[in-house]
Amino acid sequence: MSTPSSSSPSSSSFTSIAKSRLSSLASHIMGSPSTPVFSTSVVPSAPEDPLFGLAQAYRQDPSDKKVDLVIGAYRDDNAKPWVLPVVKKADDLIRNDPNLNHEYLPIKGLAEYTSAAQKLIVGADSPAIADSRIATFQTISGTGAVHLGALFLSKFHPATPKPHLYLSSPTWANHHQIFMNVGFTLQNYPYFDAKTKGLDFDGLKGSLNSAPKGSIILLHACAHNPTGVDLTQAQWKEVADIMRSRSLFPFFDCAYQGFASGDLARDAWAIRYFVEQGFELCIAQSFAKNFGLYGERTGAFHFVSAPGDGAAQNNAHVASQLAILQRSEISNPPAYGARIASRVLNDPELFAQWEDDLRTMSGRIAEMRSGLRQRLEQKGTPGSWVHITDQIGMFSFTGLSESQVKVLREKWAVYMTKNGRISMAGLNTHNLDYFAEAVDSVVRETS
């Protein structure tokens, strides 16, 4: 048996070393007087989300005449959620499929869903598909698609420092948080003209013309949220010309394809035009509104590479990086909503029925727009109300002031955001007269 050398630690020295390491570990865990330790006391209270606050106030209001014009979800003529008939059919088919299982989807999502979503947004005959220039990932609805794109651009946009990201003024409130959370500096470009209650196109063009080269521009493909004001095809062409000349990067958010006009191709026109013009761009796509799959969180993110030598290989590199980002955030997207959308998108008979359902929803909203304008004009309500029918989609900027909105809520139990935005889906044949009467009364009182 060998004898320990003089350099070998004794049993007492082992104990000493162990005690020292334990003491160091405890100090690391518990903190030391000179080391700040995280405490919940340093976390301030976040402000309440104004939309959720309004929704709660509406639910607690005892009035039997109360009107909810806040919610960003479709309602039928009885103010009830509407499950699309085609979704019911697809749901039955899926539930009764003997091969149904609940295994993980791939990181990119359900393949037959992502390929169909691709065709729907850019067109089945798009050269971008034929040339393998689109990387598509299934996402947690449109919100997740915007976030995945924002995260990707924050890591891989080559500009140093990071480019500014431009949002329309106004825009969907969540856009600000999503892009700021991944480190972008935000700028606004003019969009809504409060005087005309339409588009400030000159202001928009001026802002794009002065934006630093390489800036990212967030664009609403159709049914602009929250204003309901859209560009014409001629205006989109002008925007594309400016963005090409200024080397600006388009990021399209498309939450209302088919829901806005009832025509899927018309609502995707701007995106398809930009792809046709050879832009490299991002697209966030949601199926919450046009399928009524709000709670299923069904969306897709598309990165479209510009045409040219090596485009397909470059896009494959993009897809590989998106896979890493997706893996680190959600690993695998949820399956059920994607299965429903996929079943409809890939079945010609179900697809045709879906188009009918889209026309039903968009048609009812258009009827509410024309009905509201007609009633206000018949009453001689001060001001012009042409903008109600000029705007499109779920939301309308009414032009009502914050003080008028306050009176509508307190006196008439009519709930809308303080900037005067209303959800047209909250109007129906049972409350349209009441709402028109309320608006007429409040406008006259404050004119």
Provide a quick synopsis of the model.
The chain is an alpha/beta fold and 447 residues long.
Mean pLDDT: 92
Q: Globular, elongated, flat, extended or rod-shaped: what is the shape? A: globular
Low-pLDDT ranges: 1-19
Biggest β-sheet: strands ordered side by side in the sheet: 2-10-9-8-7-3-4
Distance between the termini: 105 Å
Please, how many helices? 18
Bin the helical content: 40-55%
Q: How big is the Rg?
A: 27 Å
Largest sheet: 7 strands, mixed
Q: Which band does the percent of strand residues land in?
A: 5-15%
Give descriptors for this structure.
7-stranded mixed beta sheet; globular; disordered N terminus
Written account of the structure:
- This protein is α/β, with parallel strands linked by helices and 447 residues long.
- 48% of the residues lie in helices and 12% in strands.
- It has 18 helices and 13 strands.
- The chain has helices at residues 11-30, 50-60, 85-95, 111-122, 127-130, 141-156, 173-181, 201-210, 233-245, 264-267, 269-276, 288-291, 311-329, 336-345, 348-379, 387-390, 402-412, 432-446; strands at 67-68, 134-140, 165-169, 186-190, 192-193, 198-199, 216-220, 249-254, 281-286, 298-304, 395-397, 414-415, 421-423.
- It has a seven-stranded mixed beta sheet, with helices on both faces. Strands 1-12 form a two-stranded parallel ribbon.
- Helix 7 links the parallel strand 3 (165-169) and strand 4.
- Mean pLDDT is 92; it is low at 1-19.
